[in-house]
Input
Amino acid sequence: MTRPRSYQTEAIIIKKTRLGEADRILTLYTPEMGKIQAVAKGVRRPRSKLSGHLELLTHSLVSLARGRNLDTITGSQTINSFIALKSDLGFTSYALYATELVNQFTADHIENHPLFNLLLETLEQLGQGGNSELTLRYFELQLLSEVGYRPQLHHCVACHQPLKPESNVFCSSAGGMLCPDCAPSQPLTCPLSVNAQKVLRLLQGSDYSTIRRLKMNRELSRELEMVMRDYLRYLLEREVKSAAWLDALREPAKQTALDREVV
Ligand SMILES: [Zn+2]
Output
C-alpha cells in the first residue's frame, strides 16, 4: 500500500532551526508519529502566512507533503497558542525546558501518545500559573516513566526491601533509591529527606489535579530540583546527548528564552 503524499497531524512545535535565507526546519511532537522534522518554507519572511501558526510552544494542526528526505509543511492552523504562557518570560523558559527534555529523550518517529498528552497538559499547567517548580518535577517524573527510565522510589534497588520512612539516598546510576544499609556500596548518591521522598512518590503516582493542591517550601523544592537534575544529567550523558543546556537553566529566564527565539 502506498502512503498518501500529504497528511495532517496535530503537533506541538518543540524546536526550530534556521535553514537558508527564509526557511526553517521545525521539530514537531505529534500524537501518532512521535517526533518529526519538517521544512517550513519562507516562514521567516515577514508576510509568511504560516509563521504565526508555527511558533515554538504552539499546538497546531499541521498539513504536510511527503518529501524524499524531509516532509514540507504546506499549511498550519493554531489550536492553542498558549498566550498566557508566552507573555511571561519565566513560564516561557520553563516550557522550553520541558520541550527540550522531550526533544532529548525521544528519537524520531516513535509514537508515544501519553507523552504528547503530558507535554500538552504541562504547557497548559505552566500557563495557568501555580507552582511551576512542582509542575516541572511532575513533568520530569512522568516523562521518565514514558521513556523507560522510571526511577524506583518504593524499594531499595540493591536489596529490594521496601524503604522505611527514614533518610534514604537516591542513586542515579542505579536508577532509584537505596536503603541506609546499601547506600555505602554506591558512590555519588544523594541523600533525601523523608518529605522529599514522599513528594517524589506522590508526583510519580498522581495527576495534575492532585499535585495542584500540594504545598512545598523552598528547601524541599530545592532538594527535589537537585535530585532530578542529577538523574536527568546522568541519563543524558550516558546517552551521549547534550546535557549542557541543563546548566543554562540556572541563568535568568530571559537568557534561555531569547536564545531560543521564541518570538
Ligand atoms: Zn537496601
About this structure: The longest strand covers residues 6-19. The two ends are 41 Å apart (CA to CA). The CA atoms of residues 13 and 57 lie 5 Å apart. The pocket of zinc ion is lined by residues 156, 158-159, 161, 178-179, 181-182 (CB under 6 Å).
